[in-house]
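job 3f2a | input accepted
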Amino acid sequence: MGHIITVHSFRRGVGKSNTTANVATLLAAAGQRVGVVDTNTQSPSLHILFNLDEAKVVYWLNDYLDSKCTIAQAAHNITKQLNTYVKGEIFLVPANPDTSSITKLLREGYDSSLLVAGFYEMIEDLALDTLILDTGAGLDEDTLPAIAVADTLAILLRHDQRDYQGTSVIVEVARKLTVAHILLIINEVPSTLDLTDV
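job 3f2a | predicted structure (198 res):
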């Protein structure tokens, strides 16, 4: 069974998607088959970071959640679009950035158990070594399933009191959900601070 890494944060704009893309590329460079799902359906960006041409996308994560396709059909092999050679492969399930699709999902919602089932289907159907989930910020009904299924939860935060307080709540929830490994990644640390103290 593939390892599931969920990349999360209390606030937006701390580098979740960039971290997700970089970790996926590093794992693929090491020879792994890596799946990436952009579960941030309100503000998707991984398709941009991986240079996926929207015009060539037949199915999005939104289509899977609307039962129009399988999760594997929504997965795009983006390995050749990387600017470097990797021994493995990366399969991206992008969320639809179209405002009407985002609005429809917000208005109608989706079955979170279908999303979770899709994670495990994707691991099996694509023989993945690792599945990385890029989430929206905060704690809500959209982010909790991605945290609950994680073998490893990587929480990004900035060096400020608000992020520390919000992150402590996420850590507490993750512990209650019995997430096996929780990592904190402090991003954008000012060079004037002592990294050991941080």
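job 3f2a | Helices lie at 16-29, 46-49, 61-65, 99-108, 112-125, 144-148, 161-176.
job 3f2a | closed
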